[in-house]
Amino acid sequence: MTTTRLDRWERRTEWPLAGSAAVFLAAYAWPILEPSLVHGWRRACEITVYAAWLLFAVDYTARVVLADRRLHFVLHHLPDLAAVALPVLRPLRLLRLIALIRVLNRRATDSLQGRVALYVSSSVVVVIFVAALAELDAERGHIGARIQTFGDAVWWAITTVTTVGYGDRYPVTTDGRLVAVGLMLAGIALIGVVTASIASWLIANVRAAEADTEHALQRQITALHTELLEIKALLKADAADR
Amino acid sequence: MTTTRLDRWERRTEWPLAGSAAVFLAAYAWPILEPSLVHGWRRACEITVYAAWLLFAVDYTARVVLADRRLHFVLHHLPDLAAVALPVLRPLRLLRLIALIRVLNRRATDSLQGRVALYVSSSVVVVIFVAALAELDAERGHIGARIQTFGDAVWWAITTVTTVGYGDRYPVTTDGRLVAVGLMLAGIALIGVVTASIASWLIANVRAAEADTEHALQRQITALHTELLEIKALLKADAADR
Amino acid sequence: MTTTRLDRWERRTEWPLAGSAAVFLAAYAWPILEPSLVHGWRRACEITVYAAWLLFAVDYTARVVLADRRLHFVLHHLPDLAAVALPVLRPLRLLRLIALIRVLNRRATDSLQGRVALYVSSSVVVVIFVAALAELDAERGHIGARIQTFGDAVWWAITTVTTVGYGDRYPVTTDGRLVAVGLMLAGIALIGVVTASIASWLIANVRAAEADTEHALQRQITALHTELLEIKALLKADAADR
Amino acid sequence: MTTTRLDRWERRTEWPLAGSAAVFLAAYAWPILEPSLVHGWRRACEITVYAAWLLFAVDYTARVVLADRRLHFVLHHLPDLAAVALPVLRPLRLLRLIALIRVLNRRATDSLQGRVALYVSSSVVVVIFVAALAELDAERGHIGARIQTFGDAVWWAITTVTTVGYGDRYPVTTDGRLVAVGLMLAGIALIGVVTASIASWLIANVRAAEADTEHALQRQITALHTELLEIKALLKADAADR
């Protein structure tokens, strides 16, 4: 595997982008969590969100330019394009924080299982937090809306992502429902990953016995090889004798 | 594998049938989405739906006639029979659009994983759209019905297929409940496919190590073979010497 | 495997017990579905239910007596004991109809996959029907009960077994909640079986390639064997020459 | 594997800790289930809960001291730390009863499948019982709370852990919602374990055929070895002849 220019770009921009996602998160979350924020700070947050968007747009453009097969790159990174091009999907940019988790993760744990578990659980926490923010932003103040505080939004996000869906809180606006759909998909993925991890762990245990069989096969063949070498030596000695 | 007459028929009718399913979809969806459609257009849509039904009935009959084991074919294609024979199940005919996806798919992607992912996600979109249409058709205008607009119907379909089931919208008519049952089954299948894909991917990764063991075995056996050929050459030279 | 006396008993009583379960089902379902049934028929149904119970009790006792390890048998067949001993769990006796499905199944299909699919789907249909009956029996007439017709009960059973749980219908009595718990467990099992079947099918496809590797190994080893036999023949001819 | 001092400590404290968890459970459950308990008994229960907490705190401290890598131990046993340090999470201490199940389990069953099934089902029962207690404790008496009796709490816990979530009962307090989140996670784990067990069982059945192939390989290689030994004997006899 050779590292392309795209790989180098992505490695170098990993930290700055994760950092700007964190700044974006703060500037995005503050006005939502603090509805009575004074005008000056609210304006500052808007500008910060805009600046972070600029950075993401520059990064996306650079990656398209650096890619070997540009159309292929665009088609395989549609969520990135959507997060940059559609203002309503801007919370998706926060998913870059998951990349940050990946970086931190690389240092924190050693086993593959631990890494997958830590990665999935931190991603779920980020997704729930971001979805609750976006939902609160979409619903608050609408007539008949049942999600009016951040606590309610987090509670709703958790009942949705686990597919429990009590129905005591649910979105009533179109924007809020779009957030809900994203969260439901994340929920199905979550159930899938948890189940699949347990299944692969169980199956790997069963597999241990099979690996033993294969190693026994290898030992048997090695024994055969030793015999053959002895036979060749005998034959050569025989030929030399005569 | 020899291609039977049935195979040839199915390959040839793939595109025309997918096309007539698309026309059927338009003629089925329009009066539902536009309740105030003038009588003339409404009549035209009814005739188109009827014409499409005729095509499907002809195709089904032809496939039964061409099959080698007719009873076996009928028993293994009960949904096709139901979609043709029962007017209430006519939305099932739209599932042929999924066949269209399969055809397009064959061109668009190259990897097996990409193909499965694209196929599942497009099928889910078609199923949700068709179920929302059928649900709206069944529920609208009924007393106490909570699904009165297409937006509500799509939202209800998504909360159902993901098994979240808030309960803010649910069908109250028998026809609407039948559509819901189909959608719930699709939801269980969706969770199953997502989980199974992740599991098989995880297991395949674990399996890579095993494949290495097997290839090592093959290399060992090839080395044995080389030795044996050398020994045979020695023996033959020996026999020639004498 | 030797057939024990218990095996022979179970094979011989398979059909009579499935038949008496069918009769029991009719006698159990009729008064529930027809609340205005006249006293005479209602009494006849009660007597039939009692007679079927006697048969099941005799069968259970006979199986305990015929078992080699009686305590082990009782501990591994607790649901059978519960269905016989606890009147509230008598709907469990209807699960013997699933055994009937198994018998019919043996004749109807040939492939393992078809058999599993048919078995699971018929079991789900039986479980939903029986649970709807038991639920209607438990809830009807209670204050605040939302399940008052058989149609509602079937709809509720389906939303429960798929874990969708809209919440438009739910049990309010203790007996009704016990039925619901059984149905939820069946739902989790259903999701598990569907997912596991898809996963094992996907994995089996991946496995085909591996089986090829193993067969290649076998062919290589067979080639080695042929070489060795040739060498032995050469050596023997050599020894005979001298 | 050598047994460390930590292992010995954990083996020796297994029974006393499970016992004190049982006592803790009684002293925790009694005032919740009996709201009209007289002051004296209520006080006794509080003291018992405090004493059990002391035992758990001592045990946790001892395990940290005895661990080889203390920081590693603390990071990998965060739930234990939380259960000891945060009063609101004290129901987590009851999970030690699951350890008791493990001990009893070791005696009761012989097959791996039976053990997993028994372990999962008893854990689910303990988790539902403990969650219902904690939920009732958190919700009872609050304005608008819908969980006011133990029966309701158990019913709610079961609808939550199976992810059905009718929405007829749901928590409205922050403490109650925290308990619900724990229960939803347990529900996802439950679905995961059930599905994964079925999948690994199905796959193991498919695998049986493969194991046969491997054993055939072993037999083939053993036959090769026999041939080689014969050839060596021939060669040696040959060399001795001359």
Automatic annotation (TrEMBL), chains A, B, C, D:
Its main location: membrane. Residues 129-203 form the Potassium channel domain. The chain crosses the membrane at residues 15-33, 45-62, 116-134, 178-204. InterPro entries: K_chnl_dom, VG_K_chnl, Volt_channel_dom_sf. It is a multi-pass membrane protein. Keywords: Ion channel, Ion transport, Membrane, Transmembrane, Transmembrane helix, Transport. One of its GO terms (biological process) is monoatomic ion transmembrane transport. It is found in: Membrane. The keyword 4Fe-4S does not apply. This is Potassium channel family protein. It comes from Jatrophihabitans telluris. The lineage of its organism: Bacteria, Bacillati, Actinomycetota, Actinomycetes, Jatrophihabitantales.
